[in-house]
Amino acid sequence: MSLKTDIEIAREATKKPIQEIGAKLGIPAAELLPYGHDKAKVSQSFIDSVQDRKNGKLILVTAINPTPAGEGKTTTTVGLGDGLTRIGQKACICIREASLGPNFGMKGGAAGGGYAQIVPMEDMNLHFTGDFHAITSAHSLLAAMIDNHIYWGNELEIDTRRVVWRRVVDMNDRALRQITCSLGGVSNGFPREGGFDITVASEVMAILCLATDLADLQRRLGDMIVAYRRDRTPVYCRDIKADGAMTVLLKDAMQPNLVQTLENTPAFVHGGPFANIAHGCNSVIATSTALKLADYVVTEAGFGADLGAEKFMNIKCRKAGLAPDAVVLVATVRAVKMNGGVAKDALGTENVAAVQKGCANLGRHIANLKQFGVPVVVAINHFVSDTEAEIAAVKSFVKGEGADAVLCEHWAKGGAGTEDLARKVVEIAESGMAQFAPLYRDDMPLFDKIERIAKRIYRADEVLANKSIRDQLHQWEQQGYGNLPVCMAKTQYSFSTDPNLRGAPTGHSVPVREVRLSAGAGFVVVICGEIMTMPGLPRVPSAESIRLNAEGQIEGLF
Amino acid sequence: MSLKTDIEIAREATKKPIQEIGAKLGIPAAELLPYGHDKAKVSQSFIDSVQDRKNGKLILVTAINPTPAGEGKTTTTVGLGDGLTRIGQKACICIREASLGPNFGMKGGAAGGGYAQIVPMEDMNLHFTGDFHAITSAHSLLAAMIDNHIYWGNELEIDTRRVVWRRVVDMNDRALRQITCSLGGVSNGFPREGGFDITVASEVMAILCLATDLADLQRRLGDMIVAYRRDRTPVYCRDIKADGAMTVLLKDAMQPNLVQTLENTPAFVHGGPFANIAHGCNSVIATSTALKLADYVVTEAGFGADLGAEKFMNIKCRKAGLAPDAVVLVATVRAVKMNGGVAKDALGTENVAAVQKGCANLGRHIANLKQFGVPVVVAINHFVSDTEAEIAAVKSFVKGEGADAVLCEHWAKGGAGTEDLARKVVEIAESGMAQFAPLYRDDMPLFDKIERIAKRIYRADEVLANKSIRDQLHQWEQQGYGNLPVCMAKTQYSFSTDPNLRGAPTGHSVPVREVRLSAGAGFVVVICGEIMTMPGLPRVPSAESIRLNAEGQIEGLF
Questions:
Q1: Which of A382, B388, B476, B558 is surrounded by the fewest CB atoms within 10 Å?
Q2: What confidence tens digit (pLDDT) does each residue in A459-485 have?
Q3: Where are the alpha helices (H) located in A16-66, listed in sequence order?
Q4: Mean pLDDT along residues B179-186
């Protein structure tokens, strides 16, 4: 069998006009703002008009800790959406948008893979509907207005050493990580240090993804802290008077983007915050709107369940009043084997013992997810190299944990390969088993929230933080920020802060290196390890081979 | 009479679905890529399909030297398009896109004014169809790839002091004019000086506006000089291998944007290069495509005729093989009076003598335009304060110069106010009087080209340039760039390089401060005076009052 690449499969897709896809969700053509013939934004007026409707069921797709073997979380999200459609459910998928910049370093990502993909793939990896450009513009405007305020007399008495609002660009540009700006004399301002992050790391991105409407968006933008004075009091975006114009720049970007799977299932692809210094989920407005329009909404969270699902539950669901009805935990036999200690180049050989050992990682995620009161089903994303005995070992283990594991073949078969999973998901979602509750209360002290996650999710013995960090947390509590959730930034490769510790480590400590307040997004970022907010390009960037071929098709992007 | 503002008039417009506007030009709906319901891009495949058609007539709208009184060049362009439609011609307008950043400093510009406007005004002043964001991305990618090349070993031996490719952002951000980048240690690269321009100043913008198709675009991008080695040999974009990926980023931006006037005349709004360091015209692809689809294409050039029309003729027409059939030279009685020495606050008082004196400016532009072999008609853009005697004085003067002046009332009446102008334009365009030729041959030495423009257009006595500038021009000639046209960057307020010299100054010199090679765009920029490529924000930026009102409309942008 000669296998087709993702892009070959995507190019063969029979896309329906986006108005037909919208019609599946009951969206009239006039309420869709088309971007070409296969993408559209859903109008704010239509979103407003469906608010009184009853919600459909919300299904979260998450995964075990990622390994180089690949798990296929997005692929399973897409496949499940198609599978639900095939068994007669009105389904909608909600995933994040891709960042432009990184595509020019490594090859760009498809949204899904094989026969479980969302299209149009090229557009989604390039400018799409311009949301990220709008975020970059809004972020850049605030940056320019801060320095302009200082230039014209600095009435707000900003300490130029304590401007915390960096600049952003949607490009991997390490040369901009640390700069000095406003050089060149009187007419260019007061020289100071600064730097750029990649756009997805912007607090504006996190806010766009958490805001419930344009008024909430503007309020949150206004709440952002952009600098401090010499007396350490904060200067807000609202003080700079940038919040109104930023909202105007973001008004279109706030509308969810509608596209489709290869099997024409509707998909909202909207928002894309970092999964470390932010919460890593698609927008609240997309998920909330989808719940009004579909019986089943399938969405995913960033990284593994220890980071992604935890933030989905404790940040997104808490803030947006959402409650998942079931969680699908994705694993591959290969990734379980890597968790069991097998090297990447030995994954092709049957190794049931390693599977059994690696299931410890899977088991801990199942137990963790149950703490949120949500039923779990494991999706085994099938690879051709998986053996019967290995699959049986995973199923047997999962059964022992009080859950079911379902073999899925969406990569090779599309929605036909996930009908069993879809039926299982419907069974548990309809059962009403879910009794969702976040892991901690709003009024718990910030440090206790960190400890709760470290002990209950990471299964660490302790959290290490020096006095200055604890003092900072106390100060924020005194300033009224104590009720915020915490947003953990640690490696996605391990339950611990050591990326090499696979499986289900115990006895470890979680050292907190730094804490940051995202006052507009509404969370305290807790940084445990090195976090890179501006990637660089590799020695041979993929951009060098990206080009249009003679047929006008894009080569080298995938 | 209570006068309505431009935005009030625009909001009352009855826009037709963009497919109907496309149909007026014979574009099938399937060949339009809609952006919402009132904007669309014209597909490359459709553009390819009309290449064998005969061209319509090309009408250039230009103006006398701008004054604070305002001339209304774009308003007249729009009004003439509507007027031509009203008298039964199949007309299409071609103008530039607006830059996003400056709207947050001063209030944003409408495209036209009064009852001669192009809509949707808000979108056109914000993200529109994302073209400028695509240009920013393509520019930024090349910048990142240059520093990345240096970081990974600098195989091309770039002299880091001679990287001439600056960065861009579509925002007025003076703090970025001059920076040091790559600070922070080994992992961030080799510290060097750099800086940002505003996006419209990017050579990528000029190239997008001059390229005839995607292959030409990529070739030109590859030709751009990004840095020099220690031995002063140039390093090209092609050496960095960024041209293919940049073309991919720009493929949608290359397609012209279709919108409409208040009277539903089709308008292509596409591209927006700087009018000083670049040629200041909308894209060649928009103009060329419009000529295949309409009987009359009305377009405009930046600034006054001494800069805008000269570059339109000597750069755009020469490069694209276009030939204007008539030129409309826009003047207002008020602006003529300012050229005659009247202060702005005295413009409301009748002053026929000042009109007669100020006509010298008008007269010189008429004579200049005739040198290109193109017939000229003067459009007097009517203001309510104009008196009969003043209008008569302008008409009488123009008659003496061998041309006609037509009073236009499009601001108050839309196309009904330009029917006379439209009829006059048709008369001279159909007469076949035009015998277009550029002002100089390709093979004339670069310095002689500068002198030709300075003496024939600015009517200067001499061009002053020191030896290093003359040597630089000779060097480029030896490198094979001698056949390029020159792109003059001087003040738009005067024929001379002194912005305060209104009227028709003589006896002046043109000092050349600097020359720059835009090898991809294909011209040598000749800088005579201070040129600002990154504007700043004013003390109270308009952004402070831009916001969404309770109805979701944008306030403060206009």
A1: B388
A2: 999 999 999 999 999 999 999 999 999
A3: 18-24, 44-49
A4: 97
Those residues whose C-beta lies under 8 Å from the C-beta of residue A292, and which sit 6 or more positions away, are A50, A51, A53, A55, A56
Instruction: Tell which residue, A256, A263, A170, has the closest CA to residue A211.
Output: A256
Contacts of B193 in chain A (CB under 8 A): 183
The residue written with tokens 């968790």 in the block is: A339
Within a 13 Å sphere around the CA of B193, how many CA atoms are in the beta-carbon half?
Answer: 8
Q: Count CB neighbours of A107 within 10 A.
A: 15
Amino acid found at B41 = K
Which residues does B225 contact at the CB level (< 8 Å), separation at least 6?
B164, B234, B235, B236, B237, B517, B519, B520
Pairwise CB contact (< 8 Å): B130 & A126: no
**Could you tell me if B177 and B534 are in contact, meaning their C-beta atoms sit under 8 angstroms apart?**
yes
Helix B203-210 × helix B131-151 angle, to 10°: 130
Q: Give the active site residue among B128, B165, B383, B447.
A: B383
The C-alpha atoms of residue A491 and residue B346 are separated, in whole angstroms, by 70
**Which residues does B74 contact at the CB level (< 8 Å), separation at least 6?**
B95, B111, B112, B113, B300
Residue in chain B lying closest to A184 (CA): B178
Residues 6 or more apart whose CB falls under 8 angstroms from that of B251 comprise: A548, A552, A554, B44, B214
Nearest CA in chain B to A185: B178
The predicted-structure confidence for B365-405, as pLDDT tens digits, reads as follows: 999 999 999 999 999 999 999 999 999 999 999 999 999 99
**Residue of B132, B165, B303, B523 marked catalytic:** B303
From chain B, the residues in CB contact with A548 under 8 A are 214, 218, 244, 247-248, 251
The structural domains of chain B, ordered by start, are 6-128+253-430 (3.40.50.300), 131-250 (3.30.1510.10), 446-528 (3.10.410.10)
Match 């071929």 to its residue by tokens.
A549
Predicted complex: ipTM over 0.85: yes
Strands A326-331 and A57-63: parallel
Name the amino acid, one letter, at A469: I
Contact assessment for residue A376 and residue A403, using Cβ atoms and an 8 Å cutoff: yes
pTM, two decimals, is 0.97
In this structure, which amino acid lies at residue A523?
F
